[in-house]
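Researcher: Re-running this chain for the archive, since the previous output was lost when a drive failed. Same request as before.
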Amino acid sequence: TPGLGPNPVSVATNLAKKGVIIFTVTFSDEAEQNEMINVATAGMGKHFHAVAAASLTTVFETIARTIPTI
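Model: Regenerated structure tokens:
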């Protein structure tokens, strides 16, 4: 939410410098997709928009295949 807490893009940038990958997922058409795209980009990750509940499985499977294993 704008104005509450630190800037999410700045936080994502700082976390990315420490090796943290940020993925964002939006669901409704009212979601602030552009802001979430900016956060994911700053966090060296990717943004996904799930158009329906059923597509969330695909989104999470894609994220799981993308992240490195420890």
